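User: I'm preparing a small set of examples for a lab meeting where we compare how different chains pack in three dimensions. I only have the primary sequence for this one, and I'd like the structure in token form so I can line it up with the others. Please keep the answer compact; I'll paste it straight into my notes.
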Amino acid sequence: MKIFKRSGDLEFFLDSCRKDNKRVSLVPTMGGLHDGHLGLVEKAQSLADVVVVSIFVNPTQFGNSDDFDSYPKTFSNDKFLLEERGIDALFIPSKDEIYPNGTLSNYDVGEIGGLLCGVSRPKHFNGVAQVVNRLFDIVKPNYSVFGEKDYQQLLIIKSLVENHNLNVIIESISTRREDDGLAMSTRNKYLGPKDRMMAPLFYQQLKNAKMSIEQGDPIEFVIQNTLSELSANFEVEYLKVLNANNLKQIMTNTAEIIIISAIRLGETRLIDNIVFRRSNV
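Assistant: Understood. Below is the structure token output for the 281-residue chain.
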């Protein structure tokens, strides 16, 4: 595994790979790696000859400096895990390397960025698009792999590629879960023992909502019932049942549905979703 701190050195390495007709996959991360990230790496390895993983805690997607400063930094363990998986290149740039002209940007991902997580984090997805576009510019990957747990982010990145006519294929993998159903997340490290025991109830309530919809219960009834159940244990930021293709309201002919939610458990914010197809549409 080669480690690069400068974009120019990484670009030189990748250019030499392309001269040998090798295809490149990129897995962008902010570190704090877990099995969910390693699933992204496995997918990337199945798609291309050369896999690049980036670790960069992006300041433009954080709402305040405290959250940015407290984000877990576990580079030694991350490096070990990636070496063990046999990736080709690890990119660990500085802020100045990613943003040589400063972090100010006119990036605006549009209406979708103001929905759901964008309500409480209004600049978040603009920052995500900004850094992902910059990484695409440096790496020029054939493929880039993202997780479906961050479903809103996934759709925004797909729209970024489409709107900017970028020559990269976005692939995704389903949410990796712990044995008790909790979606794997770097932020799970913030959970104390009692909160960690409570956390799997989040996914269980979403599964119950899916079952109710499949049984034909009215969606508004399902939402209200699930909100009530979630609120017994969590502070609910949002719970929505939407069209999975565009995060818009469900129509009578909507086949792909997403149940998507964000909650807070103590000081920890968790997100999760379930995507499924209505059998009667």
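A couple of notes for your slides: The chain has two domains: 2-173, 186-277. The two ends are 48 Å apart (CA to CA).

User: Perfect, thanks.
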